[in-house]
Design brief:
22% helix; 7 strands; binds adenosine-5'-diphosphate; binds magnesium ion; Rossmann fold; alpha/beta
Length: 153
């Protein structure tokens, strides 16, 4: 399915709605150019997982992994600065991915061979300075009810 966001706030709203529909063990892969809005969407998703306000992620571009306690345990990986896949194998990425945590991964293509087959892929692309296309690919239909109208956008 596909959603159009017209602002950073809309992207956060969309992320929050996605987060509300996640369940334990979900792996959410975010793809898109630098500045497309992956971190912004991830912030919304984390909010939708009911992570306490003071535990929201900021810009984790310099940190490989951040962990959160929300409705269920969650972690957020940003692989932008990943030089070698060993770096994430060393932090035990397989256990995160195959456990009960919700795992959100920016630049997921950088660990393609470690990604589970059953996952949620989200592609974000810039249409213009404030407009983003958000395409959600999910093996089940849970996101189908999401529409801009339902989100109050
Ligand atoms: N509709 C939108 N959705 C998300 N970000 C937007 C949007 N319009 C403009 N922006 C801007 O684009 C940038 C997205 O940054 P960020 O989320 O860090 O991207 P990424 O993590 O993909 O590199 C921010 O500066 C944000 O203000
Ligand atoms: Mg980012």
């Amino acid at each position: 399915m596909e959603l159009i966001s017209s602002s950073q706030e809309d992207t956060k709203k969309i992320g929050r709605a996605i987060g509300k529909l996640l369940t334990a063990g979900d792996v959410v892969c975010l793809y898109g150019d630098l500045g497309s809005g992956k971190t912004c969407l991830a912030q919304g998703i984390i909010k939708g997982l009911d992570v306490a306000e003071d535990k929201y992620l900021r810009s984790p571009t310099f940190t490989l992994i951040n962990q959160y306690k929300g409705r269920m345990p969650a972690c957020h990986l940003d692989l932008y600065r990943l030089d070698n896949i060993n770096e994430i194998e060393d932090i035990g990425i397989e256990e995160h991915i195959h456990g009960d945590e919700v795992v959100i991964i920016e630049w997921a293509e950088r660990m393609e061979r470690l990604l589970p087959e059953k996952r949620i892929d989200i592609h974000i692309s810039s249409i213009n300075i404030n407009t983003r296309k958000i395409v959600i690919l999910c093996p089940d239909n849970r996101f189908e009810p999401l529409s801009l109208k339902n989100l109050g956008i």
